[in-house]
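Reminder to self: tokens first, then the designed residues, so the page reads top to bottom the way the pipeline ran.
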């Protein structure tokens, strides 16, 4: 229920939405193997149609969906069987008898058609959209994100919006979770990942997480190139490289500070360290938690994952979003970004220094001495 003017009147979940307070279940425990997830040969089939909980079924490609090319020979081979050896042609009756014997043998060895046949599941992708006061663009963003191949769930986390973002997103086909008050982007990302974990089937691989901004509009589908490197196991985290945005008023001060910090602490120099469009595995997300607060979430995530040996790549994507201008509001926004990036970097430098001191001060374990 909403008050007049679009403000949310209560925190009770409505039909088709999930309140963030009910998402108390935590994500699956992180393993240390860091083995890349593998996909089956039918992962290139574009989704068409959805089940009641948002799962796609193979078939025709929905309108506006980007398709994944299928290599020649990727179709399932014709099934052959050597259960019927050739019999010598020694007469009609003997041939008929041999055919009957072979048919009986085939019936004995053939599997029961009523028994369930084992089949492999392709890994799915969940799109998580943290949003605040994005009622003007969220519908287009949701509809465009649903057209990304392998996506079967689009989740919008309404982070305390004062407009009708949650209602517009739900009408566009998204699952909606709402914070009763603004808690920040990092909290919205963690809430979204927890809800996706609750919807993951226990007998299937956990969904790959694709985080995008709520103001991408119709260009949200262009984040599709971020998915294949993660699904195919070439990277644990892929980051979108955006083209120059018209109207952007920044001078690169915050981007430069984040880039230098990541390079000095990990040895890798990113091009766009503040890009919020990111695709990563469940294991990588768990390794990056707790996330850095505020606008330092991207910088902190990159440093944490690189330090732990995860693979990070940047992928060009043709995206358009609402940039911060050069007016007072834009300057205040960049000042908050700079503050949060420095806080995230400082916390990780202190953490790294503490780990080094602990290794130095801790006594070396010596093998037990035996007295003869």
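Designed residues (372 positions):
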């Amino acid at each position: 229920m909403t008050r007049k003017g679009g403000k949310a009147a209560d925190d009770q979940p409505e039909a088709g939405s999930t309140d963030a307070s009910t998402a108390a279940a935590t994500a699956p425990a992180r393993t240390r193997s860091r083995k890349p997830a593998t996909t089956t040969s039918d992962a290139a089939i574009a989704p068409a149609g959805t089940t009641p909980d948002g799962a796609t079924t193979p078939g025709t490609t929905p309108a506006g969906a980007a398709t994944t090319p299928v290599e020649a020979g990727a179709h399932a081979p014709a099934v052959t069987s050597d259960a019927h050896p050739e019999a010598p042609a020694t007469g009609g009756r003997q041939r008929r008898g041999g055919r009957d014997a072979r048919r009986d043998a085939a019936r004995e060895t053939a599997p029961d058609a009523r028994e369930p046949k084992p089949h492999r599941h392709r890994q799915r992708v969940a799109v998580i959209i943290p949003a605040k006061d994005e009622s003007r663009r969220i519908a287009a963003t949701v509809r465009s994100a649903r057209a990304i191949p392998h996506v079967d769930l689009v989740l919008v986390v309404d982070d305390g919006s004062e407009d009708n973002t949650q209602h517009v997103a739900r009408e566009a086909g998204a699952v909606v979770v709402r914070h009763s008050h603004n808690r920040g982007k990092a909290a919205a990302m963690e809430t979204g990942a927890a809800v996706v974990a609750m919807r993951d089937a226990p007998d299937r691989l956990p969904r790959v997480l694709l985080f995008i901004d709520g103001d991408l509009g119709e260009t949200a589908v262009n984040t599709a190139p971020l998915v294949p490197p993660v699904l195919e196991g070439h990277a644990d985290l892929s980051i979108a490289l955006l083209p120059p945005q018209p109207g952007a008023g920044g001078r690169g001060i915050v981007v430069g500070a984040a880039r230098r910090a990541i390079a000095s602490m990990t040895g890798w120099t990113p091009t766009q360290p503040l890009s919020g469009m990111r695709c990563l595995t469940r294991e990588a997300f768990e390794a990056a938690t707790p996330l850095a607060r505020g606008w330092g979430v991207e910088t902190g995530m990159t440093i944490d994952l690189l330090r732990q040996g995860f693979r990070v790549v940047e992928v060009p994507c043709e995206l358009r979003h609402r940039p911060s201008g050069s007016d007072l509001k834009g300057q205040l926004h960049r000042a908050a970004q700079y503050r949060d990036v420095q806080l995230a970097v400082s916390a990780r430098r202190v953490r790294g220094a503490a780990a080094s001191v602990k290794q130095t001060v801790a006594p070396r374990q010596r093998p037990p001495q035996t007295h003869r």
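Residues 328-361 form the longest helix (34 residues).
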